[in-house]
Design a protein that fits this description.
Chain A is α+β, with helices and mostly antiparallel strands. Helix content of chain A is 18%, strand content 22%. Chain A has a 3-stranded antiparallel sheet. The chains are: A alpha+beta (95), B mainly alpha (252), C mainly alpha (333). Chains B and C meet through helix 1, helix 2, helix 3, helix 6 and helix 7 of B and helix 2, helix 3, helix 6, helix 11 and helix 12 of C.
Chain lengths: 95, 252, 333
């Protein structure tokens, strides 16, 4: 059977101003306008958002989970990037 | 000064539109062409039922006979409903549903905008809230009218059939109601004919973009807003009223 | 709403994952991650059987939500008050939303929603058999909220911690919304029990019909149910019988407050066990409904099939229009 499915869109919602858009799921829609409307009906029925992004799933470039070691492990030994690396005298330690 | 009865009747005209179209749209729940539209149509039905609740409550208070939203919604006889015939017609298919939603929500957008300046403060508050909902309905339905009108040959055919069927009923939207004259004079709400030109200015360009032919006006008249309904209304009410009729006096 | 049919096998289409290579080294690494309580995410390597089990479970769950819209949808146009009509419509709409969250989660496993949906419509895929019972009076709506959604919540909460990230996240969303479903049902019943004799009669009638199907929702007894792998993989964390017992224990008190009788003469407190004992479940009935002989199996699928078939021209038109638009934009650019 021939299947012609509406394209898949990934949905990102900003729950309130001051916060990042966060991925929350996906919807099917024939065009961007409807993708936005559908995302609104499916993911913000209880005032969960103030802004929505929809992105065609096929347009997303993702890192390969197999490449995790080379992408993310090198950050592991750069502990001097974290504030807790530095022991300061108690009087000024809230710095 | 508009009489209590005239004022009540004017509010009922608006409230019954929302009630009856909300009832029709709720029939789609679980049966729409895609799940996404199940969600969208249910949302619109919820908006309309919410509007109906506020307006019928308000009408009951204006009337002053102790009737609440449910007594007005479920316990009137057919001739006492004041909705436009357009709202009670069966859904038929998705084309008729979205074309009707577009024609009606475009009317509602104009009406709410005018009513938000009403001398009836309660009505003005309801209008301000409902205007946002109606704008969304108009956008959603308008998008669909264009998609279907300019989609495939089949969707174009169905949309034109729907428009040809519904168009004659739109004359009723703007038919003058002499009993509303004093209400209009009191600044409670607009006279119906005064909405027509703006409505056409909003509706016709979208129908053109949808490559649909706007039908010519004919002598056809419908009278739902005066209480003379179509054959479909009785069936809608039979379904909607069954529980209240079967269990008189029960609270839910 | 929910599916009990977590462990009912069905023939899967030959879906292929992103990395279908099976290797003992990968599998050992995968098992170690599960044991460490890590979440598995869509593009991570996973055993083919894990993927298939999840697709089956998540899609059965999604189908249940979608079919579950029908028995309650049956009463939307007849709701006895505008408030109850709005609540019911919002609830049934939520179920559609839950179905969509879950289909979206299933799609991350490399299978399309239309494929899954086609399996439902062709009768190949299962859904919760609770929805093959009819809704005969208005109190059914309240009782479904109270008992069926109540059982569902008990079943679903452990799934919020299941090992597959997208499923766990979808379930968190579902569970948040589900509590409204149970409470509105109980609230509607409370109101009816305070009302007329006719209303109370409706409630008792509905409880009589839904009690046993509700406790069957937890699925077969543990001894008859094979969950070794699902438990191993953190997809199923609490056994059917434990959940069922928890549900019965919680419900008895609620029935008392409501003033209804649960239709089980063997239901009584067992001080020794610290739990309620209850009568024998009619598993013949359960399996006959699962296998297609419930009162509404045929009607439910026919209704979904009709909506899908009647909507084909709409879906095609929307795509055709989108293609036209894209072509126009290209010319304009």
């Amino acid at each position: 059977m021939e299947r012609k499915e509406w394209p898949l869109w990934e949905v990102f919602i900003r729950s309130r101003n001051g916060l990042d858009h966060k991925h929350c799921g996906s919807v099917h829609a024939p065009d961007p306008r409807m993708a936005l409307q559908v995302a609104r009906d499916v993911y913000t029925r209880r005032m969960e958002g103030v802004s929505i992004w929809v992105v065609k799933a096929s347009d997303i470039v993702a890192s390969d989970p197999d490449a995790k070691p080379e992408l993310f492990d090198p950050a592991e030994d750069k502990i001097y990037r974290h504030p807790t690396f530095y022991k300061l005298p108690d009087e000024v330690n809230h710095m | 000064m508009a009489s209590k009865q005239e004022h009540t009747e004017y509010v009922l005209r608006i409230g019954d539109n929302a009630l009856i179209l909300g009832q029709r749209l709720s029939e789609w729940c679980g049966h729409a062409p895609v799940l996404e539209e199940d969600m969208a149509l249910a949302n619109m039905a919820l908006d309309l039922i919410g509007q109906a609740r506020m307006l019928l409550t308000h009408a009951g208070q204006l009337e002053g006979a102790g009737r609440d939203e449910d007594q007005l919604a479920f316990l009137r006889t057919e001739a006492h409903y004041r909705n436009l015939t357009l709202c009670e017609l069966p859904n038929e298919d998705f084309a008729r549903t979205v074309v009707r939603n577009f024609l009606f929500s475009s009317f509602q957008v104009l009406l709410w905008a005018r009513l938000s300046g009403s001398t009836d403060a309660e009505l003005a508050a309801i209008a301000a809230k409902s205007l946002k909902e109606a704008r969304y309905h108009q956008q959603h339905a308008g998008d669909w009218v264009i998609r279907l009108g300019d989609g495939t040959a089949e969707s174009h055919r169905r949309s034109q059939v729907a428009l040809d069927y519904l168009w004659p009923y739109t004359a009723e939207l703007f038919a003058p109601a002499p009993s509303d004259d004093k209400v209009v004079a009191a600044g409670i709400g607009p006279a119906w004919p005064s909405l027509e030109a703006d409505w056409e200015a909003q509706v016709v360009p979208v129908l053109n973009e949808a490559t649909l032919t706007v039908p010519a006006r004919t002598p056809f008249k419908s009278f739902g807003k005066f209480g003379r309904h179509s054959e479909h209304m009785g069936h809608l009410l039979a379904t909607m009223q069954i529980m209240q009729r079967t269990y008189p006096g029960a609270r839910w | 709403m929910y599916t009990q049919a977590l462990d009912i096998p069905q023939k899967d289409a030959d879906e292929r994952g992103p990395r279908a290579v099976e290797s003992p080294a990968y599998e050992a690494e995968f098992n170690a991650r599960i044991d460490a309580g890590e979440f598995i995410e869509p593009k991570d390597w996973m055993p083919e059987k894990y993927r298939k089990t999840l697709i089956r479970q998540i899609s059965q769950h999604a189908h249940s939500e979608i079919v579950g819209m029908l028995p309650e949808g049956n009463w939307i146009t007849r709701a006895p008050s505008l408030k109850r009509k709005a609540i019911l419509l919002a609830k049934v709409q939520d179920e559609g939303g839950h179905g969509l969250y879950l289909y979206a989660a299933a799609e991350t496993l490399g299978v399309s929603r239309d494929e899954l949906y086609e399996a439902l419509l062709s009768g190949k895929a299962k859904y919760s058999s609770i929805f093959n019972y009819p809704t005969l009076n208005w109190a059914d709506i309240g009782v479904i909220g109270w008992l069926v959604d109540g059982a569902a919540i008990m079943n679903q909460i452990p799934l919020c911690k299941c090992s597959y990230g997208p499923y766990a996240r979808a379930m968190i969303r579902v569970c948040k919304e589900e509590s409204f479903h149970q409470r509105q049902g109980y609230d509607a019943l409370l109101q009816m029990m305070k009302g007329t004799a006719g209303q109370r009669e409706m409630v008792q009638d509905a409880v009589n019909r839904w009690w046993w199907p509700s406790i069957m929702m937890f699925g077969p007894h543990d001894k008859d149910s094979i969950h070794v792998e699902s438990a191993r993989w953190g997809i199923k964390r609490i056994s059917n019988d434990d959940l069922r017992q928890k549900f019965v224990d919680a419900t008895v008190k609620q029935a008392e407050v409501l003033g209804v009788t649960l239709p089980d003469p063997d239901l009584k407190w067992n001080a020794e066990r610290g739990h309620y004992d209850f009568g024998a479940i009619d598993w013949d009935e359960f399996w006959s409904v699962v296998k297609g002989d419930g009162q509404c199996n045929v009607d439910r699928i026919a209704a979904r099939r009709k909506a899908w078939d009647d909507g084909a021209w709409v879906r095609e038109a929307a795509l055709a229009f989108a293609e036209k638009q894209a072509a126009r934009e290209k010319v304009a650019a």
